[in-house]
Amino acid sequence: MDHSAVLAAYDRQIRQNLEPDGPGVLIERVDGVVRRVAAAHDWNGVLWSDLEESTADESIAAQVRHFTSLGLSFEWKTYTHDLPADLPERLLAAGFTAEPSEALMVADVEELPLDTAPPEGIRLLPVTDADGVRRMTEVHEQAFGTDGTDLGRQLLDQLTTAPDSVAAVVAMAGDVPVSSARIEFRPGTDFAGLWGGGTVAEWRGRGIYRSLIAHRARIAAERGVRHLQVDASDDSRPILLRLGFTELATTTPYVYEAPPAQAA
Hints:
The chain has seven helices and twelve strands. It has two domains: about 5-100 and about 250-255, Aminopeptidase (3-Layer(aba) Sandwich), CATH 3.40.630; about 110-250, Gcn5-related N-acetyltransferase (GNAT) (Aminopeptidase), CATH 3.40.630.30. The protein has helices at about 5-15, 55-70, 85-95, 130-145, 150-160, 210-220, 235-245; strands at about 25-30, 35, 45-50, 75-80, 95-100, 100-110, 120-125, 165-175, 175-185, 190-200, 225-230, 245-255. Strands 1, 2, 3, 4, 5, 6, 7, 8, 9, 10, 11 and 12 form a twelve-stranded mixed beta sheet that branches. Strand 9 and strand 10 form a beta hairpin. The chain is an alpha+beta fold and about 260 residues long. It starts with a helix and ends in an 8-residue tail after the last strand. The longest helix has 15 residues, at about 130-145.
């Protein structure tokens, strides 16, 4: 893999020129940024920025004004190669809060192991309806310790209005959901994104996560996708490296919380 070429393609296709990728989504390009604007339960934020040092602070302030005028919290997703170099410090000064950094990791689909089966006693169940979304949300809340309500609404929206844009799966131990993950497709690009891979604590270390990578990689291969992309946590990064993923950059989300709505 030519790391520089793949990173440049990722920036160009996914961050700069991404088409609307969900129901009601707007991709807007203004004042040196590319932003995604969607419903409050969906992801809202800045995908790309190329700012001048002399005007960066005003550009940041303009994005704060835009999203908060819509009553939306939002995320400014930075990468290690973004300009200006002190963008993270400027975001913190503007009232953003940094979340944990992740590794941007990419693999060629044709080079990934596609035959990794789930461990004994585990079956993989495609998520296609509200019951499947409920199971997936249950796993998310147990695995990550965060509320999965917005994720559930977002996924159900996708399955209802754009089912070809996502494939989700839950790993079941009998009738109990113990792990889940999804893959999101970006038509017209070389990339599909792997998201949400999480396993409840007592089932970790048994190979379920690796089997979900292979399951989604097989779907990507069937659709002719060239690259898989993951924003990897410290826990998943070593597994992905062993499977053949390459780390291209570090990405850090900076979140700006919209002020609470004023009572009438």
